[in-house]
Amino acid sequence: MTSSVDRSLDDELQGIRQGIREGRFPARAFNDQQIYDLEQDRLFSRAWCFLAHESEIPAPGDYVTRYIGNNNIIVARTEHGDISANLNMCRHRGNMLCKSEMGNASHFRCSYHGWTYKNSGELIGVPYMKEGYEGRLKRKEWGLVNVRVDSYAGLVFGCLDPDAPSLEEYLGGFQFYLDFYLKQGGEGSEVHGPPDHWVAETDWKICAENFAGDGYHTPVAHQWGFNLGYFPSSGSTHSQGWAASIPGLGHGIGLGHSPNFPPFGGFPDDLAERMKASFTPEQVEVFSQVRTAVGTVFPNLSFLMQPFSLVPGESGVRFVTMRLYHPVGPGRMEMYSWCLVPKDASQEYKDEAYRAYTLAFGQAGTFEQDDFENWTKVTRAAGSTMVKNVDFPYIMGMESERDKDFPGPGHVVRPYVNDTNFRNLWSRWADYLVGEV
Predict the structure, then answer these.
(1) CA gap 416, 217 in Å, rounded
(2) Which CATH architecture has domain 49-152?
(3) Rounded distance between C-alpha atoms, residue 144 and residue 79, angstroms
(4) String of DSSP letters for 363-409
(5) Of 27, 297, 303, 433, which residue is the least packed, with the fewest Cβ within 10 Å?
(6) pLDDT for residue 233
(7) How many CB atoms lie within 10 A of CB 101?
């Protein structure tokens, strides 16, 4: 039986969803216990969520531990070379099984009572099996709790809902844009070093929105980047480009364009040629015009590619950051940030790209500090008592029509500075929270 409190909240969520269609979103959503609890129960328990990049676990026995919502997951490369994901909890009394964030192990042994599992999840060892269980325990029935996994171009996703649609259907055509980050060159991409990893007093949704194509903040929050020559654009041209979203699925990307920026600028010439060969003609047409590509896979995985000048005024080097915003409480999250590089690029380029990423969007990166200072203050304000009935405007581009000449999929509008992607993001978020996904 649904309580009056539950009904009241569900009614409120229906109102929020209607408000999103009209270009409004409630400030309280960025720091609210009820909203956080609903996200855990209705969103992260059903959506496809990023777990790891395949290059993080290249050899049999390699593993990392990651999260889907509040569930800690072991993601491992098995002895047969496939990828397995299991809840990081012993089936005997619930102890955390694997206490390291990454490593290599063919088996995991519980430190409490010694139950032992293959890294694929099968229970293979039980102390005092004969004396204690007298044949009553069937090991094959007590393996680790398995998590459904699938992958795209090196990205490993997990889903806790066995009835959810396939990952391919979930991405819904956004693969076209993901390829720009993931299929650079003939051999795809790989992570360069372990992820930066820290906890911040910031709501995950603020970050997901920002990276779904918020070019509006760049000339203000990162103004120094223009003034000192770190950007190959200016404040007057930065808004040019496209905002592309997959209607009804929440994914969105901002594609910034500068009139004088060379095709595939910031990549070495030989790598640029290999990239062209790995893309479709439509992708080459789109990507060759893009200076900055910043996008979010719903709900909480984002990417950014841009050139960055290590020496102000000189031509930049392209880098890619991949980032995951893991919620750990209302208004609080755990941040994971990787640098992606093309597998078949030269070591010199990989190192230059990693250095550019570190200076710009590493844990102590210049742009990262700008963003987190603002995001933390937004989160703090969203938790105050006076904002309960305060909405934010999301009305940019309400009347924008699709750019019919754009060869990429989804709803694509101009300019890049636009709220269309955000309305799509929040509409999907609301669909999950009202239980209609």
Answers:
(1) 12
(2) 3-layer Sandwich (2.102)
(3) 17
(4) TT-HHHHHHHHHHHHHHHHHTSGGGTT-EEE--TTTTPPP-TT--SS
(5) 27
(6) 66
(7) 12
3-class DSSP assignment, residue 109: strand
Regions of the chain where pLDDT drops below 50 = 1-5
- Tell me the β-bridge partners of 296: 252, 302
Task: Give the other-Cβ count within 10 Å of 293's Cβ.
Answer: 23
Contact 327, 204 (CB under 8 A): yes
Q: Where exactly are the structural domains of the chain?
A: 49-152, 172-433
**What pLDDT sits at residue 135?**
83
Model confidence over 265-303: pLDDT tens digits?
Answer: 899 999 999 999 999 999 999 999 999 999 999 999 999
Buried-state track 306-331, b at ≥16 Cβ within 10 A, e below 16 = bbbbeeeeeebbbbbbbbbbbbeebb
Contact 46, 160 (CB under 8 A): yes
Q: Distance between terminal CA atoms of the chain?
A: 21
pTM over 0.90: yes
Look at residue 5 in the predicted model and tell me its pLDDT: 47
Q: What angle do CA 119, 125, 128 make, to 5 degrees?
A: 160
**DSSP code per residue over 178-241:** HHHHH--STT-EEE-SSPEEEEESS-HHHHHHHTTT--SSHHHHTHHHHHTT-SSS-TTTTT-E
Percent helix, percent strand, percent coil in the chain, to nearest 5? 30, 25, 45
- pLDDT tens digits, one per residue of 123-158: 999 999 999 998 899 999 999 999 999 999 999 999
Question: At 100, which amino acid appears?
Answer: S
Q: Determine the Cα–Cα distance for residues 286 and 387; give it in Å rounded to an integer.
A: 41
CB 50 within 8 A of CB 326: no
Cα torsion for 302, 307, 310, 315, to the nearest 10°?
A: 180
